[in-house]
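Is this the right way to post structure tokens for a design question? Let me know if I should format differently. Anyway, here goes:
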């Protein structure tokens, strides 16, 4: 009983910390671990480049990418299967079947760290392509190395070849697929989840503890770049693809 109470307390405090720092471009989240650092480094340029015009934030969650999209000049519309506390959704829909969304109306779809939680990713890719304007761009990121999370809705891990097939089957013209992270980032993320999960109990001191922990994030990311230059064991991939004109 005591063990469950402690775990529930840690989970509650961690959720409150995530609610307090929801944005992907917040340094507290970027420097959380080697994985979060390399994910941000890989996603920031394509997200900022293509998140213009009317942008669908697909799988919006806490609204982590809202600030990135708005700072890029995009008119963001959020979509998720259910609203997260504190984040009002523009669209409540299943990513694999969203007939309420108009076809060919979005200049960009942003979909970061979502497809692993979708039981039918081919259907989701087809729907995201459908709502893109001709010439519009899908920017997505997916994990390759990851522990089980968000259970029971954790279904897939992805390879470069798998992403290419998903894009091609959806009728998208692939722009680029880039790996991020690696073994050291993956291992460090597990440590950071425990250490900074406990650190969330410190409340206002949490950012200070993240700052003290940040050198390990930089070290893990640097070790992956040095040792796995070919990207044979990445933490995940970032890709962007265009709907043909």
């Amino acid at each position: 009983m005591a063990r469950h109470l402690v775990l529930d307390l840690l989970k509650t405090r961690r959720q409150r910390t995530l609610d307090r720092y929801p944005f992907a471009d917040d340094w507290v989240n970027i420097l959380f671990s080697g994985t979060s650092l390399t994910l941000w480094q890989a996603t920031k340029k394509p997200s900022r480049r293509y998140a213009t015009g009317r942008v669908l934030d697909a799988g919006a969650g806490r609204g982590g990418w809202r600030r990135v999209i708005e700072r890029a000049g995009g008119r963001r519309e959020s979509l998720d299967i259910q609203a997260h506390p504190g984040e009002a959704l523009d669209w409540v829909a299943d990513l694999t079947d969203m007939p309420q969304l108009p076809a060919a109306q979005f200049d960009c779809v942003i979909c970061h760290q979502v497809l692993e939680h979708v039981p039918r990713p081919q259907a989701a890719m087809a729907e995201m392509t459908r709502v893109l304007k001709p010439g519009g761009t899908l920017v997505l990121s997916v994990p390759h190395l990851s522990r089980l999370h968000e259970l029971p809705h954790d279904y897939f891990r992805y390879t470069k070849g798998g992403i290419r097939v998903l894009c091609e089957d959806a009728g998208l013209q692939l722009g680029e697929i880039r790996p991020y992270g690696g073994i050291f980032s993956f291992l460090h993320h597990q440590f950071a989840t425990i250490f900074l999960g406990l650190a969330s109990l410190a409340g206002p001191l949490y950012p200070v503890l993240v700052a003290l922990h940040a050198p390990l994030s930089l070290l893990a990311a640097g070790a992956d770049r040095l040792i796995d230059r070919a990207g044979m064991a990445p933490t995940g991939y970032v890709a962007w693809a265009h709907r043909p004109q």
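Format looks fine. Someone answered above. Worth noting: The radius of gyration is 18 Å. The helical segments are 2-20, 27-30, 34-50, 66-71, 121-131, 160-169, 183-199, 206-227.
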